[in-house]
Amino acid sequence: MKVLTIAGNTFKEAIRDRILYNLLFFALLMIAVSLLLATLTVGEQSKIIIDVGLASINIFGVLIAIFLGIGLIIKEIEKKTIYNILSKPVPRYQFIIGKYLGLLITIMVNIIIMGAGLYLILIINELRWGHDIFNADLDIWLYIWLDIWKAIYLIFIELMVVTAIALMFSTFSSSSTLSAIFTIAAYIIGHLTEELRLIGNNFPDSFMKSTINFFYYFLPNLDNFNVKGKVVHGIYVSASYISLVTLYGLLYISVVLLLSGVIFQRRDFK
Amino acid sequence: MGRGSDVVIKTANLTKVFKVGFRGKSVAALKGLNLEVNEGEIFGFLGPNGAGKTTTIKILMGLIYPTSGKAWILNKEAADVEVKNRIGFLPEQPYFYDYLTSREFLRFYGQLFGLEEDELRTRMNNLLTLVGLEDAADLQLRKFSKGMLQRIGIAQALINHPDLIVLDEPMSGLDPIGRKEIRDIILRLKEDGKTVFFSTHIIPDVEMICDRVGILMKGELVNVGRLDEIMDAKVKYVEIIVRNVSKEMLAHMEAMGSSVYEAWDHVSINVKDEDGVDSILQMIKDGKGRVVSVIPQRETLEEYFMKKIGGTS
């Protein structure tokens, strides 16, 4: 209950924050611009639109997750609003979970809006070429366009992981810049973990090898959540793959949140 | 701690050492504080800025952990989350979510105490009336003045009907009328049988309403007891706050050697000697003016301490 109260308030804070609307505006703008890009290609316009659209959703989603995610705790400490919350009967771990859930709701709403924007552009594109999409083969709807939501869903799981990491850095660092850099680094390396292992295995030096392997196991493998390319080219993404990857994400998040809770519990709020 | 249920706050050898700077130099903010606050009293926690008042309060509220020593509130350890159900707290210089309206703000804290909607609504209305913010019920906090923030801060501290109210510098930055309103609220809380613990560095705040005071200096408690027992601070001037006084009368008062400061809805008259107070009050009464408050102003704690430090060195 208290967790939900804090989550609700966090959501309220986010939707009254101007940064969110700026990011959302640019995301929708990017998706709309894909219509122009599509014009430059011969045929396959919808592929270009889906490709650019999903990439936009991913990039702006990550920006929202990182910038709002880091502010989540640091802003509370900087603005000293945290004093008044933690002096109420709210255990610190519940505060963290509430903040996290509040931001997830915000991200989810944004992603749904962006996804709807992408759909709108796809429909506009079809109508532009005089396709009677409302009487079209169900194939288009089911196998391609609905698959878009599989990609968007996995983007959301990825953002859940990124948000949890941002939250963790902000529980012990008091600098937003530093936390942002760490989180962005974790995000980038998280997408390069396969390469990381390859590099590690090619090192003759066993110390370097084990260090690199440590990072390989320690950081999330965010490429698992990337099925954008498959969706664009109409390659089937199985339900079992999605469930497995979801499970992986949730496990990673649980560990990160647990760690955040432990750090946060010991912290002094000077 | 002892079984005496009449002790509401108790600390034993409470010590807090902060590491500051790049090299982690140790600075002791509190040095072995022993303090007891009894049930039903108004306790003023006095000390110059940087004496360790806020550090003490933060330890009591479980926001920071003591380096050594212990603190209890209502017979429970200070870090106990459950005991906070019975505490109302106003932090120093209220920092609140400024994107919320008064009502949303009170609802949020009420929900953190697990209050049901019906009860919450009644309490919200009562509290908004108590602190005089009915008209600002649907105004965002970012549009509030400092005094209004302090008042909504007190309202949120009372949302759970606490047994103990802890206020950190509740009167700093307020005008005389605002300070009086806060004093009235504190006195009313005492009448309801509640214990009030508040910190301040302004002596007139405490001398009018506190049962006991504790004086903190450089992290050490230098004195506890009734203020007049501790200090015999001489009255520097008497501040009289009035409304509805004519300009001629004010000019006359100035001619008599008092300083007059006009604010938008009241006038503050500072009378140099205590004997002059009676005649000024009589004058206001004859002129159908309304007296809001009469407050003897003594030297501030800083002045007191400066003198004390100066005297010993």
CATH structural fold name of the largest domain in chain B:
Rossmann fold
Tell me what portion of residues of chain A adopts beta-strand conformation: under 5%
Number of helices of chain B: 10
Question: What is the tally of helical segments of chain A?
Answer: 12
The helix content of chain A is over 70%
Distance between the termini of chain B: 39 Å
Ends apart, CA distance between termini of chain A: 28 Å
The helix/strand series of chain B, from N terminus to C terminus, equals EEEHEEEHHHEHEHEEHEHEEHEH
CATH superfamily of the largest domain in chain B: P-loop containing nucleotide triphosphate hydrolases
CATH top-level class of the largest domain in chain B: Alpha Beta
Largest sheet of chain A: none
Which strand order does the major sheet of chain B show?
A: 6-7-8-3-9-10
Briefly note the structural class of the backbone of chain B. Answer: alpha/beta
How does this structure look, described?
The complex is a heterodimer of chains A (270) and B (313). Chain A is an all-alpha fold and 270 residues long. Chain A has one domain. In chain A, 81% of the residues lie in helices and 0% in strands. Chain A is built from twelve helices and no strands. Chain A has helices at 2-15, 18-39, 45-78, 81-86, 92-128, 138-145, 147-172, 176-190, 193-202, 206-218, 228-232, 239-266. In chain A, helix 2 runs parallel beside helix 5 (92-128) and helix 5 (92-128) runs antiparallel to helix 7 (147-172). The two termini of chain A are 28 Å apart. Chain B is an alpha/beta fold. Chain B folds into two domains: 7-230, P-loop containing nucleotide triphosphate hydrolases (Rossmann fold, 3-Layer(aba) Sandwich), CATH 3.40.50; 235-312, Alpha-Beta Plaits. Chain B contains ten helices and 14 strands. Chain B has helices at residues 53-60, 102-112, 117-130, 146-157, 176-191, 203-209, 227-230, 247-255, 275-286, 301-312, and strands spanning 7-20, 25-38, 42-46, 68-73, 76-77, 87-90, 164-168, 195-200, 212-217, 220-225, 235-243, 259-262, 267-271, 290-298. In chain B, strand 9 and strand 10 form a beta hairpin. In chain B, helix 2 crosses helix 3 (117-130). Chain B is globular and about 60 Å long. The model of chain B has no long low-confidence stretch (mean pLDDT 86).
